[in-house]
Amino acid sequence: MSFLRSRFFQAVVVLVVSFVVLRWGIRPPAPxxxxxxxxxxxxxAVLIYVSADSDSWRAFVRPIRSTLVDPDRRxxxxxxxxxxxxxxxxxxxxxxxxxxxxxxxLRAVHPAPPASIRFRGKEINISGVDNPLRKDGAALxxxxxxxxxxxxxxxxxxxxxxxxxxxxxxxxxxxxxxxxQDPGTIAMLQEAYLFWRIAKGAPGLPKESTPWNSVxxxxxxxLTEEQIWQVILYLYDxxxxxxxxxxxxx
Amino acid sequence: xxxxxxxxSLATRGxxxxxxxxFCAAALALAATLPAEAQEAARDPAYRAFPLIGSRLAVWAxxxxxxxxxxxxxxxxxxxxxxxxxxxRTGEPRYDWLSHEFVKLxxxxxxxxxxxxxxxxxxxxxxxxxxWTYMTSIFFPTYWVYALLFFAxxxxxxxxxxxxxxxxxxxxWIHVGLGVLSNxxxxxxxxxxxxxxxxxxxxxxxxxxxxxxxxxxxAINNFTWMPIxxxxxxxxxxxGGTIAAAYAAFRFLAAKTDEERARxxxxxxxxxFVALAAFIVLPFAGYWLGREIYAFNQTMGITMMGGxxxxxxxxxxxxxxxxxxxxxxxxxxxxxxxxxxxxxxxYVPPMLIVLTLGFMVWATPRSLVLTLDEARAMGGTxxxxxxxxxxxxxxxxxxxxxxxxxxLSFVLYRRANRVSTRGWVGxxxxxxxxxxxxxxxxxxxxxxxxxxxxxxxRIGFSVYQVLAVLAAIVLVMAIDIPMFxxxxxxxxxxxxxxxxxxxxxxxxxxxxxxWLMGLMGFARSGIRQxxxxxxxxxxxxxxxxxxxxxxxxxxxxxxTIVFFALVMFIFWLGGLGEKGRTATHGHAPAxxxxxxxDADA
Lengths: 250, 601
Description:
The structure holds two protein chains of two kinds.
Chain A: H1 7-25, H2 32-51, H3 54-69, H4 74-96, E1 116-119, E2 122-125, H5 140-154, H6 156-159, H7 191-200, H8 225-239
Antiparallel strand pairs in A: 1-2
Helix pairs in contact in A: 1-2, 1-3, 5-8, 7-8
Chain B: H1 2-43, H2 55-90, H3 93-127, H4 129-162, H5 172-201, H6 217-220, H7 225-254, H8 258-296, H9 298-305, H10 310-334, H11 348-362, H12 372-378, H13 386-389, H14 392-414, E1 418-419, H15 425-449, H16 455-483, E2 488-489, H17 501-526, E3 531-533, E4 537-538, H18 549-576
Antiparallel strand pairs in B: 1-2, 3-4
Helix pairs in contact in B: 2-3, 2-5, 2-7, 2-18, 3-4, 3-18, 4-5, 5-7, 7-8, 7-17, 8-9, 10-11, 10-14, 10-17, 11-14, 14-15, 14-16, 15-16, 17-18
């Protein structure tokens, strides 16, 4: 069992175990792009570990050197000579072969909003604006209820009755509808940002977010300004999230 | 042999002729395009097109090169002065030699920096005349200040360098004073130039039409001026340290004697130490700058962090992760040349695990690159686990833990060949470990708590995390210094015996940091998008498009290669003058370090 103490063997084990954990230990599965990134870091760490002192480095390199030059390892060398090009060829094939799905893509999830937008001919500031309905504390519950009704009539089919992005049509869309329960969505944004996204939808997305790659309608043609603010109130109320506040200058 | 020489000579001449032909062809092509450029310029005075590569790329490349050199010549004198003062106060000539070596490097790069600055100015005046006219209408008084400071800086550095022997001995305080003045003038130059570049990001002191409202001070003291001043000042020290260490590594690898190898091993260690010490506080300054950008304009902040630049920060995380891993790796390799360091080898694996996990968390993207199948499997574009790691709470937490770990590496390195003889060593060690533990606990606590509060409160938590880490660093060092004063030595450091791969790490760190500077420069300029001066002066040129990250990465890479080629050439030129007279010339003899020196390097 001396091979268990071999630095080279230990390095290989760490790499394999890391890959297994990252590939099958994370649920739901992590995207392949993230696994590649993680494995790059692990590989660097393993190389540092085996070469952080001279004895360890010599022990690590010994089996590699032996495989490359020792006469009695000729058969192993030959096997590598066949296996490595085959593996590289297979990798090249997997990268180049056509697949029945769109390639992975990077999409800006929170594109930068404009400072102001035109809403039915009216200029509405996005930068620095809070939900105007919050000023009317007495009528807040009424506005939330109205927002819920508007949501159920218009938004629920995609964003779901639990506001988790799992509506009836959700599985047909790429990217899927936003999950408002996720603390990484509306909790990260000011209410004015939501107003812009709801009012202008996918057609109003900037280029960085590829406007053609979303089915979110521009609701400015169907909802009034007050209805949109009401829906926003409802989203935060129903999910228990707090809208992001504007930072003050200091 | 003669025939071979002759054929070699012919080949060289052939290559020379080929190069000459290429140069002539390029010059002809350039000359042919110039009349067209002149006609175009007459039609549209707002912009002129730089031949072949376009004006923006020309300005980008020259600006990045200029900033690289400027950062080097402003950063190195700061720690060269500190090292000179250490040598002056301790009376150890090796520090004086090292300080002079560092200033020599600066000196060689000085004129190149000025030339590149002039080239940048010509590009602005010639190819962006409307922009330059506007900037002049705001900042004209500062041009005079800049020029005067430049004169003062140049003459002071000349005096500092050439007066090294003249102002030695009892007049050393005058020499140190010159070093202080050089640094003050250099820092002032940096601050003036920063006022121009930060005004372009966050203009202040002007009305909506862009006209100056009051004095020029309102434009200088804009939102991002002071954060960038601090950030660049620290980054320049890191950059200077890494370049100086890379220079030492190069000299180490090319060394012919043990003595020379020992000398440059020590120089590389000091350069890396300086870079590491400044690097530890750099993320804090960067975070402050980011907050100020958000405070100035949320849209700009979201463009920078959440919009199309979101993946730029993943690249940044990878580069900084490499810097952390590389710096620690260098320290661990360096411990091999220290007798007695074997005691501390057992700490390497746990430290490496913390750094690796921290690196992985920091590099976890918020905006994932994923296929439709992967998105469906995740139930949306956000992964329930990775989403948690992709936000600032997680990233602030791990970066603070990585800083603590790096500091622990340094502490272990520092005491590698010492055994404290103090009676209170047990208590001291316990308090030190407690300081590490409490700081880590505070960092983790606020990191986790950050998930349960709203964003604006969470941002404030980073301050507590930073303070906890800084307090631990101060406390540990406050105990460590007296605890190991007069300590028993387990052996002398065997300078020059470090594994050669450590020197490649030093070169890698310099290249990584230079690349990182280019990337951050792109981020700083890119967030203005289609504005020369954000919200005031729009970029109406055909090149008013923010380039994609891949294109930017290619440009940064090419400019980084050019920078290192120039640096090598300049250092080679600087070394020519030293050839053949190193032994007899100089303010202080090169130190004898081979075979060991005391541990307090």
